[in-house]
């Protein structure tokens, strides 16, 4: 794909019918369980680069010094997996950005539970050198947890711990991902307890022979909600979506309904239709459990000139990019000043008219930024640098967008 993608301004009635990737969040959890237990299989595989990297490193295809790309999930889940493989030696690292993302809380927990994980070069940063052991498990207490992935990684390998596992924590963002993990463990036949402050599993449990069902990706659906919201008239069909979901990001439908996105389910598909935008004095939301919805939601609010305050965004600064800064940079291009903190973004005042003098946007090497920029082409022609970053979660995105 060209390093700069040209998007002409779309007009008229927008229609499309797409099959989105499987949820990489669900697939990545199922991949780790399947690597631990041959009785467990998946109903399908995600096309995302993150999931492909994870499968390869779990299978040992990347060798004893594995480069896992830029996926935080890949590094954290693979670290937990290799830590409980007795006799194995594995080095794990990735891009410069990934190596600097938080990892120490997971390393500390793994070592306290019987593991042997060390830093290869720099303290509290990847690459990691892991000597696989039989983990004893037992009790471990976190304070404030920066990422739910630390707890999820431990939950997924907990059936392999001889004494089981009892985790407690003071606070954790993205609780919905822990609920998803617990549900997948139960579907695999494990008896687990999950509350907002703790997780428990007794030792000695074995899985049942099962094929875990993988859902379509609701976080990817958010960019089609943004597309419908910014269109004058639109209907998009997304195949294979169900009303009941383990994914917290399915709440995207609730967030976008007042922004002009009507939805209904029929024949195994989710239909999104353009509807009137509701009169809102101020749009407020807390995305502590759904931070991946921030880019499409806030981009939509800015382009619709709706006053808003979004909280619960503290994990955005340590994603593939600093997504709070990225949203601010995009808004500035239209003359909009966002008020930001480490965990919130708000805006109450907009210019009368948007004038885009330079229509070339950077993706900050971040897949969700790239996809949130695309629907702006319903209002302005755009040029997008490094569009290929969407391969991290939704490789087919530009092909689908071109079919509108």
Quick recap:
31% of the residues lie in helices and 21% in strands.
Tell me about this structure.
There is one protein chain. With 404 residues, this protein is of the alpha/beta class. The protein folds into two domains: 4-21 and 216-402, UDP-n-acetylglucosamine1-carboxyvinyl-transferase, Chain (Alpha-beta prism); 24-212, Enolpyruvate transferase domain (UDP-n-acetylglucosamine1-carboxyvinyl-transferase, Chain). Helices cover 31% and strands 21% of the residues. The protein has helices at residues 24-36, 49-59, 72-83, 96-100, 104-112, 148-157, 175-187, 218-230, 252-256, 294-303, 323-332, 367-373, 397-402; strands at residues 4-7, 13-18, 40-42, 65-67, 89-93, 116-119, 128-131, 138-141, 165-168, 192-194, 198-201, 210-212, 233-239, 261-266, 269-274, 283-286, 308-311, 339-340, 344-347, 360-361, 382-385. The strands form six sheets. Strands 2-13-15-14 form a four-stranded mixed beta sheet. The protein has a four-stranded mixed beta sheet with strand order 4-5-7-6. A hairpin with an 8-residue loop joins strand 6 and strand 7 (128-131). Helix 1 packs parallel to helix 3 (72-83). It starts with a strand and ends with a helix. The mean pLDDT is 95.
């Amino acid at each position: 794909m060209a390093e700069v993608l040209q998007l002409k301004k779309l007009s008229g009635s927008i229609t499309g019918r797409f099959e989105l990737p499987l949820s990489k969040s669900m697939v990545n959890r199922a991949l780790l369980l399947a690597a631990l237990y041959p009785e467990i299989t998946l109903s399908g595989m995600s096309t995302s680069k993150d999931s492909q990297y994870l499968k390869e490193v779990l299978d040992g295809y990347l060798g004893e010094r594995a480069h896992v790309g830029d996926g935080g999930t890949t590094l954290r889940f693979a670290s937990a997996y290799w830590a409980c493989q007795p006799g194995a030696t594995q080095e794990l690292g990735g891009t410069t950005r990934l190596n600097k993302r938080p990892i120490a809380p997971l390393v500390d927990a793994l070592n306290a539970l019987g593991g042997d994980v060390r830093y290869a070069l720099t303290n509290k940063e990847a690459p990691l050198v892991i000597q696989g052991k039989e983990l004893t498990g037992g009790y471990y207490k976190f304070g404030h947890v920066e990422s739910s992935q630390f707890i999820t990684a431990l939950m997924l390998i907990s059936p392999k711990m001889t004494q089981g596992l009892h985790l407690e924590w003071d606070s954790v963002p993205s609780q919905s991902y822990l609920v998803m993990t617990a549900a997948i463990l139960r579907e695999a036949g494990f008896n687990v307890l999950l509350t907002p402050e703790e997780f428990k599993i007794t030792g000695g449990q074995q899985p049942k022979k099962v094929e875990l069902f993988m859902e379509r990706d609701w976080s990817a659906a958010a960019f089609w909600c943004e597309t419908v919201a910014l269109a004058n008239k639109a209907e998009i069909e997304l195949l294979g979506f169900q009303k009941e979901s383990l994914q917290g990001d399915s709440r995207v439908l609730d967030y976008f309904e007042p922004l002009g996105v009507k939805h209904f389910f029929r024949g195994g598909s989710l239909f999104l239709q353009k509807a009137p935008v509701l009169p809102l004095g101020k749009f407020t939301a807390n995305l502590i459990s759904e931070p991946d919805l921030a880019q499409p939601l806030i981009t939509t609010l800015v382009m619709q000139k709706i006053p808003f305050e979004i909280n619960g965004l503290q994990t955005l600064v340590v994603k593939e990019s600093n997504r709070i800064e990225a949203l601010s940079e995009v808004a500035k291009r239209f003359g909009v000043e966002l008020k930001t903190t480490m965990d919130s973004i708000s805006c109450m005042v907009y210019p009368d008219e948007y004038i885009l003098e330079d229509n070339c946007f950077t993706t900050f090497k971040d897949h969700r930024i790239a996809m949130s920029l695309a629907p702006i082409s319903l209002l302005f022609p755009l040029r997008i640098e490094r569009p290929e970053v969407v391969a991290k979660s939704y490789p087919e995105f530009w092909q689908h967008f071109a079919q509108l």
